[in-house]
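lol ok so funny story. i was supposed to be doing the assay writeup but got distracted and ended up predicting the structure for this chain instead. priorities right. anyway since i did it might as well share w the group, maybe its usefull for someone
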Amino acid sequence: MDGASSQQNTTISGIRKHIHKELYDDLGANKPNSMPDIGIDKLSDDLLIIILSGLNLKEAARASVLSRRWKNLWRSAITNLEFDDTGMKRSKFISWVNTILKLYESRSIDSLIIHFTNTRSLPSRPIKRSTYHEIDNWIIFALEKDKLRVVDPPNLKALEIKKCPYLQTLEISALKLASLAYEGVKNALLLNKIPNLCELTLGSGVCVSFISEPQAHSHYSVQLVKLRLKFYLPIDQRTIAPPDLLMLCCLKRLEMLCPSPAGRSLLFFASLIKASPQLREFRIEMSYVEPNNGKLWGMPFPSVSAAEAVKFDHKNLELVEMAGFVGSSSEKKFLVHLFKIASSLKRVVIDTQSDCYDDPDFDPKEHAEHLVSTFPHQVEFILK
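and the output, tada:
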């Protein structure tokens, strides 16, 4: 070991001993401290950053009171923030986290992990509403960065994350999580330990990924009971679905928010119904868009002809809902196809409220009534 390395190790050791011996536990106080006489003031900023990076977050924060010069340096050294509430009162832990995060508001970090286990409300220690507000603020802070990990929160049962354009990675491991809503980029979502997840809402690029890259979602899709897919335009390229979609073995309700040019085939969605043998309820909400400068957008779902549409007999589908109905040929063909593939169908709800047409002489309800007259009478129809 050369002299420089020996000096650096000695310095780190001296700082650690000084911190553990002299510094107090309360971050809010201002107890004066003096630097140990080990030549620390003569070291360069780069070397000080290396030294500080050898400390954990709490030690580095405490060390910042030793010298004005350290106040900014330790934030450059510590870019992986990890908080643990073990042995801390709830109020003190919240104050500590808030203090540190405020210091990092305009700085980049590599990771943020908050172990907050003291969230159970007891008669002797009820949780204040403000505590949940603090947790929301921590999540907002994380979402303003490009990576977010949600790791083993003991009581998290529902989570919704959307409108986070900078988030490139979302990793979730939550044993009690039952409901998740996420709208974000295509390859951002990483779901690990989620044995109780049964309701899922996906939007934007990750929604397209669910259709075009089914194997990336196969480890959790089989357990879903309710699924909502919210497609948005535009997308980077046309979606090409594989011949075999995910098997949604437990799915009971499927909802789709579907933007599309009027008249574009909707028959692809019959494939999703086929992949869901236990499906009871299916809802599709239409949102019609105009072509962009005479050209069609890249579409989030493929166009399927009547000859290509899957044909099967679904034994469990009982309810079909179509919202935003305007009477287009694609809507009529899709509903006719559903009658052919679902012998179990009992009720069809058609909602004709739509912003697509503002012509007072055009009444989509008339188109719906005419369509209904051609269907079997044993099926109940509800027109809105």
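The longest helix spans residues 3-22. Residues 22-38, 236-240 have pLDDT under 50 and may be disordered.
back to the writeup now i swear
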